[in-house]
Design brief:
The structure holds three protein chains of three kinds. By secondary structure, chain A is α+β, with helices and mostly antiparallel strands. Chain A has nine helices and eleven strands. The radius of gyration of chain B is 22 Å and the shape is elongated. The chains are: A alpha+beta, B mainly alpha, C mainly alpha.
């Protein structure tokens, strides 16, 4: 039988497409057998991790530095030395810039210039998770908004979506800028987004987040869904605010501001 | 042949490019990869066993590491039960590299030979190589 | 038909060579960016999207403009557009290709881009953007090529093209709506959090794309034997007039809401763009240029005498294109990031490597446009005088 060139090309193309598609068929791929995994027995469990920052207990510059250093050193956060490429998981801002939209020109003077500790709020309703096209940033069942650096394609949509400016991007290779690498934790590579993870690697081993541990009680961490947790206790005793509450993100970081006791 | 000169010239260029990998490697001997297992940490072990058998690891360590990665990062499970029932922490830096602390003489041997470039160590810190 | 792009005058090949040179330089700079990281650009922790994403946003609009020729011809039987619908479709192909390239060069880990397909995330707008952009590219390539080839052999196009053409109409609207949704759904950025974002995008798309088409048609008429037609250019001119009027009107609506409500979050980005904020005002001259050009173009377009005169129409079209390029290219994206989430100002300006990579991608788009237009014009010149119906 005779076949003309057009018919042949159509047939060949379909064959190649068919073979190519069959490669994606899970039936033909090597099936990955499920491996046996389990959580560490000492892992801390919760339904909704949250943090209360009692700003009255931050008194000296060292209080802030200790907490920030704790996080940035064990997580191999680089220091590029310029604000353009800056990466920070936890940092300070004054009241006016930490809580824009709640300006108050008649705040106690001591509070106007007092630095506040800012970090990822691990929102209940996180816009960053909503926009991530690869689920590289995702919400864990225990309420933590986690970052999978292996999957991140560096599109930075999450950075645009985050109302709190909590995320940083590796605009350069971070390795040469890590002061003293912690050999027990990886760094990141260029082109991925990173942020505070509420120290999941420590929680999974039964430890409190590094900043909480070094804060000498100024930062309280616990399970919001447990009515007997310390965070619930502290929240029930003091008035607290969260950043940009009107956006409906339900942040998991609460701030106890106090008043004049911040002076001195 | 119409435009024969250009065609023959083009064919010669094509052949030169296509055979480049072959003639550029004439005379170079490629040694069989020889991953070394004589790190100080392995020497200290009483039972010289990896997480799984050598044959399994050689064929499947890439897939296993991917599964470990998804399990730890996305599912919070950090303990691996090996096929022999032993428990391990699923971590490249803190488990695998603790014994295989010589990346250049172990990991890189086969990777260089197979010309693969896993980017694990762009993030995961590799242990300081000891002179062994 | 691609062979039509392989023969050309000296002027044609010089133009192609110039484009290739820009592409080459852009590629070399991209290699540098790939190894050093996106730190080579002017992007920062506060302004995390800049020139590349803004070019992408602008070009999605240009791409959607093909529908402004398709709707009158296929839905309302405006036969006059028959000969030039192909120009719109091929412009869409070039523009969408540029969009995809701009997203690629902007990505931190472009090698992982398949993750978007391997881990589909329907709640992410970027996922849908990938789908609609790729779909629109495919649609226009298939429709354009098939109808052009049918024209060449003076046969009716195959029947399966018609449904594709009808699908391409809502699809064109969707690509720009989805792109607008990237911005309009983010709770933290009040400059973008407005329902009119999608409408503004569409209005500016239907102004900028057809404006470019007017200029391209005049160029084609001057450089080749194919004349798109005076009446056709006038019709496109009317479309640009209405779209640009709507666009400027929508912009003024935004200004009203921001400045009558006097909510700082709504006002601050406009203040930064047009008068400067906290002593920073790098974009102010650019934004006022855009505003002046917009008004100037409207004066030329609305006045029938200057619209009917093709010289002034060309000036107006160029003014529309440049004004909207500045508005989308600098104003919209950078404005969303300034001031940042702490109400501090970090300015942004593209660096030299960033500019050359951008020029390289534009050159790539223009190369594709040149090749496709050469093919289309070649077919039109070949079949000149023969009426085709489709």
């Amino acid at each position: 039988m005779s076949i003309n060139r057009r018919e042949f090309l159509k047939f060949a193309g379909l064959t190649i497409a068919g073979v190519g598609l069959s490669a994606t068929n899970p039936f033909f791929r090597n099936s990955t057998e499920a491996i046996q995994v389990s959580p560490m027995p000492e892992a801390l469990k919760a339904k909704r991790w949250a943090m209360v920052i009692d700003i009255r207990k931050f008194k000296t510059e060292d209080d802030y530095k200790r907490v920030i250093e704790a996080c940035h050193s064990i997580h191999n956060v680089p220091n590029f030395g310029n604000p353009k490429d800056e990466i920070k998981w936890i940092w300070t801002e004054d009241y006016e810039h930490a809580f824009p939209g709640q300006e108050n020109p008649y705040l106690p003077e001591s509070l106007k210039h007092k630095p506040f500790i800012l970090l990822c709020n691990h929102c209940e309703n996180p816009p960053c998770v909503r926009v991530c096209p690869t689920k590289a940033t995702f919400k864990r069942p225990d309420g933590i908004v986690m970052q999978d650096m292996h999957r991140c394609i560096g599109c930075r949509f999450c950075m645009a979506a985050c109302p709190y400016g909590a995320r940083s991007f590796n605009y350069r290779n971070p390795r040469p800028f890590i002061k003293e690498p912690n050999p027990e934790y990886p760094s990141r590579m260029i082109g991925v987004v990173e942020k505070c993870t509420f120290c999941t690697e420590r929680l999974d081993k039964g430890l409190m987040p590094a900043c909480v541990e070094k804060s000498n009680g100024a930062m309280i961490f616990g399970d919001l869904s447990d009515p007997n947790s310390e965070v619930r206790k502290v929240l029930s005793q003091h008035y607290s605010i969260r950043r940009k509450q009107e956006l409906g993100t339900q942040p998991g970081v609460f701030y106890i501001i106090g008043g004049d006791e911040n002076a001195g | 042949m119409y435009d024969g000169g250009k065609i023959i010239f083009g064919i010669i260029i094509f052949l030169a490019i296509v055979t480049f990998p072959f003639y550029s490697n004439i005379g170079k001997a490629v040694t069989k990869p020889d991953p070394k297992l004589d790190t100080p940490e392995i020497k200290k072990l009483t039972e010289k066993k990896c997480v799984e058998s050598k044959e399994f690891m050689r064929a499947e360590h890439m897939k296993l590491l991917n599964q470990w990665r998804d399990s730890v990062v996305r599912e919070r499970n950090r303990i691996y039960t090996s096929s022999e029932g032993r428990l391990y922490q699923m971590s490249l830096q803190n488990t695998c590299m603790k014994c295989h602390s010589n990346k250049k003489k172990f990991c890189d041997e086969c990777h260089k030979y197979a010309d693969v470039n896993p980017y694990c160590w762009d993030c995961h810190l590799q242990p300081k190589e000891s002179e062994s | 038909m691609l062979d039509k792009a392989l023969t050309g005058s000296r002027r044609y090949w010089t133009w192609v060579l110039v484009l290739l040179a820009f592409i080459g330089v852009g590629f070399l700079f991209y290699l540098k960016q790939f190894s050093y990281g996106l730190g080579l650009t002017g992007l920062s922790r506060d302004v995390s999207w800049g020139f590349y994403i803004s070019q992408f946003t602008f070009l999605v609009g240009v791409a959607a403009s093909a529908v402004m020729l398709v709707i009158p011809y296929y839905l309302h039987d405006y036969k006059k557009f028959g000969k030039i619908v192909i120009l719109g479709e091929f412009l869409a192909v070039a523009a969408v290709t540029m969009c995809i390239l701009f997203i690629f060069v902007d990505m931190g880990q472009p090698m992982r881009i398949l993750n978007v397909i391997l881990h589909p995330t329907p709640n992410s707008i970027l996922f849908w953007d990938t789908i609609v952009l790729s779909g629109y590219l495919l649609l226009n390539i298939i429709i354009g090529w098939t109808t052009l080839e049918s024209d060449r052999y003076q046969v009716a196009p195959p029947s399966w093209v018609k449904p594709l053409i009808y699908i391409s109409i809502p699809w064109a609207i969707s690509i720009h709506t989805v792109t607008a949704f990237i911005y309009a759904g983010l709770p933290g950025r009040h400059f973008w959090l407005t329902a009119i974002m999608a409408a503004r995008f569409l209005a500016s798309a239907f102004a900028s794309g057809p404006a470019l088409l007017i200029l391209m048609s005049m160029l084609v008429r001057n450089l080749t034997k194919f004349d798109p037609g005076r009446e056709q250019i006038q019709a496109i001119g009317k479309i640009v007039t209405y779209a640009m009027s709507a666009n400027v009107f929508f912009f003024l609506l935004e200004i009203f809401t921001a400045f009558y409500s006097r909510i700082p979050g709504h006002m601050s980005s406009f203040e930064y763009l047009f008068v400067g904020l906290e002593g920073h005002g790098r974009l102010v001259p650019l934004m006022w240029t855009s505003a002046v050009l917009a008004v100037f173009s409207l004066i030329l377009l609305i006045n029938p005498a200057t619209r009917k005169n093709e010289r002034t129409l060309a000036v107006a079209a160029a003014a529309v294109f440049i004004s909207l390029w500045i508005d989308k290219g600098f104003g919209l994206i950078v404005g969303g990031f300034v001031p940042n989430m702490f109400e501090r100002v970090t300015e942004y300006w593209p660096t030299l490597p960033e500019t050359f990579i951008t020029l390289g991608v534009w050159a790539m788009g223009f190369l594709i446009l040149t090749i496709l237009y050469k093919v289309a014009v070649g077919v039109r010149e070949e079949t000149a005088g023969i009426e085709t119906e489709h």
